[in-house]
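Reopening closed ticket. The problem is back. First fold of the pair:
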Amino acid sequence: MGRVKRNKIIIRVLILGILAVGIISGRNFIKQRPGQLQPAAQTQGSVKYWTCAMHPSVKSAQPGKCPLCGMDLIPVETQVAPVYEEEAKEGAFYGCGIKEFGHCPHCDEGKPDAQCICGEHKFMIKGEEINCPVCGRKLEKLSKEDLSSISKNIAGTLALSKRQMELSGIANAKVIKANVFKEIRTVGKIAYDPDLTIAQEEYLIALETFNKVSNSPDSDVVRRAGDLVEKSKFRLKVLGMSDAQLEELEEAKESQRSLILPEDKVWVYADIYEYELSWIKEGLTVRVTTQAYAGEEFKGVIRAINPILDPATRSLRVRLEIDNLMKKLKPEMFVDVFIQAELSDDVLSVGREAILDTGARKIVWVDSGQGSFEAREITVGPEGLALIDGQRIKVFPVLSGLTEGEYVVTKGNFLLDSQSQLTGGMSVLWGGATEIKEEETKTESAPPATQHKH
């Protein structure tokens, strides 16, 4: 009886085992029904280097601790994409959003959906007109060459869910044309320049001498008088006088006494830094204030710009002609100078907060709508101000890269750049990462491994 009972138990165990194997085989058969693309192999990538989840710039060939924060370094593996049997045969990719979105529309990986590993949908083959099982869109077929071209164009794209956008506090602004201007403030000094006065006197004397001897039969005398005029004229230009001022000096036939004594008009010397020179030109209006006469403004214009940059201060001296009807401004007085400059026409402009400056490039995140964002390199002019909705906003005139009516991210763009590092987009601040692998570790305390390319 004992042997019979044991045999029955063994038979029951065998039957249960056969049923379990059959159920598992049936599920695999259902999953691998015809018309679906299944991975033929999924291989683990080798460890490329070790890095810190908080400081991706840290790289090490061996595991250890982060030198910046002390956290355990995590491995970064070389990315190995799944190989599909039918794909290997036909050399084609399929997806429902490659052409329109440039990435998988059903996840936040930011990759072409033909390469997406989010697991939300499979890609059909066999030439059947099968729709995406998630959204119902018709699947499109592209060759590997087409996909490579598309991948280059979408390297800087990123997709966020509505929830992610709300948590990130992302805000955008419309790219518009505006009147961009610049108010340059610098310190000036009322001119007391006896050297320039003497140089003007020498030029007038040389000019008078040349006029007297111009009809002389001695050509050598005429030549030497002409050389003296040219040398005196060159010295005045080096001291900061323009051609227009030289013509005025020749017509007036007397030096400017305001350089040494108070007159109805005085000269002010002011220094403009190199990075502001693009805004400066002769004829711009200026305002001058001084502590001696608080609350009072003296107006004038820029008359001359020194042709030589000061190598020590990286600045250029400009000469201002200021009205001094009451003779309040005295030589050697210090003044505050305000120069108002503006571009000639309304130009396309973008707020300074929208630009990520890498040093070599200027990048903005363009809001393409429906949670899609694109990192785009733009070319801008010098920073200025614009009145937008009654407020003075710091802006850059856009020379290329944007069109009127587009929307750029003004708040949360650093978060977008950080997210692009995690999802395979183009990180503009970390040198342009384009292939980043993120895997969940089995331990709760360890952060996800992230691959960065710098």
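Second fold of the pair, where the issue appears:
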Amino acid sequence: MASTAPATSRIDSLRGGIPCSWRAEHMPAHLRSTEGGVTNRRGQSLSGDEDTVARTPIILMGFSLGTLVSLHAALSHTHAVQALVLAAPAVSAEWTLALRVMTWVIKPLALLAPTARVVPGVNHEWICRDPAFMASYDGDPLNVTGNVTARMGEQLLNAMDAVEQNREVEQPDSAFCATPILFMMGSSDKVTSVPLAQAFYARIASRDKEFKLFDGPFHSVFDDPDKDAVFDHLLAWLHARFP
């Protein structure tokens, strides 16, 4: 994958420390029906190589809401995943009074007005401590900086509930718990909840799991001024399991 946009700097930082023997120059999930390559809205050139896929371990990494997608993908067992990395995991929500009220109205709203932007979005000021990154973030057309739609709010709550109800994470002999898993969060993350992530982590009966809490960073740990420590820890964790 070749990236040109500032918002993809975290990918470029990670690529430099990955050995070519297990680095995939592709995004197979996005290129399943594409031969050659495509260019996305950020201007990234993406290419696929089926031969490389067969030789490369699948390390599934999600950030923020992407961790919820990653967990559902890993628990579906559609693909054989060799490791799972969850950064700033959004696995549950704090059940405030406002959220409890919202659950009563979100289903009819999602049905009658699915695109209505009525669900509060991310607390913008707690995304990242780096002003330069925030300028890039605000200018990225793929980022949602305001309220999200009723349908998205409903689907997020449904997805979180499905993960909460899944008992495979608590079964030591399950395929999920046989997969190495790394949680990474900033101690000052106020977008997702550190205590809720730690509670979910405690449920996981994996034989190889780690929860790494970095002192200081906000939500976007890969873009923090101290991001080198985050990448160093991630690469050391990966190299220990995939020499």
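Update: turned out to be a display glitch only; the data is intact. DSSP finds eight helices and eight strands in the chain. Strands lie at 37-39, 45-47, 59-63, 83-87, 117-119, 148-149, 181-186, 209-214. Please close again.
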